[in-house]
Design goal:
Structural class: alpha/beta
Main location: cytoplasm
Active site: 19 (proton acceptor)
Largest sheet: 7 strands, mixed
Number of helices: 6
CATH class: Alpha Beta
Order of helices and strands: EHEEEHEEHEHHH
Family: Belongs to the PTH family.
Strand order of the largest sheet: 2-3-4-1-5-7-6
Site (Stabilizes the basic form of H active site to accept a proton): 91
Number of strands: 7
CATH superfamily: Peptidyl-tRNA hydrolase
GO biological process, one term: rescue of stalled ribosome
Length: 190
């Protein structure tokens, strides 16, 4: 069993923002399998799918990005998941738009959702999939206004294709492991 955790903010006003691309990734995968989200045993929503004999629990924390660790710990405890069973999906403004970056472990790299998960787990030892949202220069309104901003039409087109490939990368992780997925998906989406 794998826990696939897409990070984002739960309110409707954050829908389709750059910061919610993690939510969009698990929503796209759930939709591809016709799996609805329902309330989990904690502050998260969960959808269940099965792929090639592997059960995947798709998780959307309802705690806001900066407190995601609470929902991750609750989901891990309820589903008896190990750190090696989880993949956290989040935005990364330091990666070019449409680039996927899988890692087996590492720092938060300035991403506050990852930072809180690391603090809550007491470890950086869990897989993550960062989706590049392409900050090219410091935005006038600051970083918050950028990550909480909506995608432009061109950016949305790139993200739609990126989410298709992201779905493949998640399934590859679930079946073949993080190293295999890293070797096949750590690149810009074309």
């Amino acid at each position: 069993m794998k826990l696939i955790i897409g990070l984002g903010n739960p309110e409707a006003r954050y829908s389709n923002t750059r910061h919610n691309i993690g939510f969009e990734a698990v929503e796209a995968l759930a939709a591809a399998f016709g799996a609805p989200f329902s309330k989990g045993k904690g502050k998260y929503l969960v959808a269940k799918i099965r792929h090639r004999g592997e059960q995947l629990m798709l998780v959307k924390p309802m705690t806001y990005m900066n407190l995601s660790g609470h929902a991750v710990v609750a989901a891990m405890n309820f589903h008896k998941a190990l750190r090696s069973d989880i993949l956290v999906i989040c935005d990364d403004m330091n990666l070019p738009s449409g680039t996927l970056r899988l890692r087996s472990k590492g720092s938060a790299g300035g991403q506050n959702g990852l930072k809180h998960i690391i603090e809550s787990l007491g470890s950086e030892e869990f897989a993550r999939l960062r989706i590049g949202i392409g900050l090219e220069e410091k935005p006038q309104g600051g970083y918050s206004s950028f990550v909480l901003g909506k995608f432009s039409t061109d950016e949305r087109n790139v993200m739609n294709r990126t989410l298709e490939v992201c779905t493949e990368a998640i399934l590859d992780f679930a079946v073949n492991g993080i190293s295999h997925a890293m070797n096949h998906y750590n690149k810009p989406v074309s």
